[in-house]
Specification:
Elements lengths: L9 H7 L6 E2 H11 L4 H4 L10 H15 L3 E5 L2 E4 L1 H8 L7 H4 L3 H7 L17 H6 L2 H26 L2 H14 L6 H4 E3 L10 E4 L7 E4 L10 H16 L1
Antiparallel strand pairs: 1-3, 2-3, 4-5, 5-6
InterPro entries: Mrr-like_N_dom, Restrct_endonuc_IV_Mrr, tRNA_endonuc-like_dom_sf, Type_IV_Methyl-Rstrct_Enzyme
Organism: Heyndrickxia coagulans
Protein name: Winged helix-turn-helix domain-containing protein
């Protein structure tokens, strides 16, 4: 069957959380794919960019819209639960949840930068005095909305990066370095060779397009500063490579 649009995923997504338990995003992917009877082919279909599976992308947007509307809450890395507002919505037994339905919530209007949302509500703890609001030009109001949406997007991106697998994160770092101008193409410039959980080299990238020298990299997610033991382990890995 055709993969449903992201709005069609919203109500079933919320119903999964309706048991008040915590659910992982990976679990929700599977349940929604089964609910809509997606075929094996559907589950392997990528976006035109080739970066993400189409059905997961649409479920991801459904999750974002529900979260921005206050219907669900993220309680951990890739872990979600329903809110009281979400339970109230389910108790109303709506036929569907879509963008138009979510526009009843001020938080969603702020996320959308909706022109009907009051300017003094564009962001938490950033209420604008009414006299200042009257002085704002359309460009300034638009800029305020843009910065708020950009901040929300950055938050979502950070959550996504933190919830990805170690293997994906290592590849992401190599891709980032290539995008910064190191090496040439993905085929000849970036080589991810690390394995999850090791202390070795996660990638090799050419210093420039000529490939006269190479840079060895290690990509790990750290909550704080990188300690001396980790640096020493990486140095030891380099020493072992140069000895071979």
């Amino acid at each position: 069957m055709t993969i449903p649009d992201y709005q069609s995923f919203m109500l079933p997504f919320l119903k999964i959380l309706g048991d008040r338990n915590e659910h992982t995003l990976q679990e929700i992917y599977i349940k929604l794919a089964d609910y809509f009877k997606l075929t094996e082919s559907d589950r392997k279909e990528y976006l035109p960019s080739g970066k993400q599976l189409k059905y997961k992308n649409r479920i991801g947007w459904a999750r974002t819209y529900l979260k921005k509307s206050g219907l669900l809450d993220q309680v951990g890395r890739g872990i979600f639960t329903i809110t009281e507002r979400g339970l109230n919505v389910l108790n109303e037994n709506p036929e569907k949840i879509d963008v138009k339905f979510l526009e009843q919530f001020n938080e969603f209007l702020k996320f959308q930068g909706n022109k009907n949302s009051n300017t003094d509500q564009i962001g938490e703890n950033k209420k604008l005095p009414s006299n200042l609001e009257l002085d704002l030009s359309p460009e300034e109001i638009l800029d305020t909305s843009y910065r708020e949406i950009r901040r929300d997007l950055m938050d979502e991106l950070l959550h996504t990066v933190k919830s990805c697998s170690p293997e994906f994160f290592e590849k992401l770092v190599v891709d980032l370095l290539i995008a910064m101008g190191y090496g040439g193409t993905h085929a000849d410039a970036g080589q991810a060779i690390g394995k999850s959980g090791d202390d070795g080299i996660d990638g090799i990238i050419k210093e420039d397009k000529l490939g006269l020298d190479v840079i060895y990299i290690q990509a790990k997610r750290w909550e704080g500063s990188v300690g001396r033991p980790a640096v020493q382990a990486f140095a030891g890995s380099l020493e072992r490579i140069f000895r071979t």
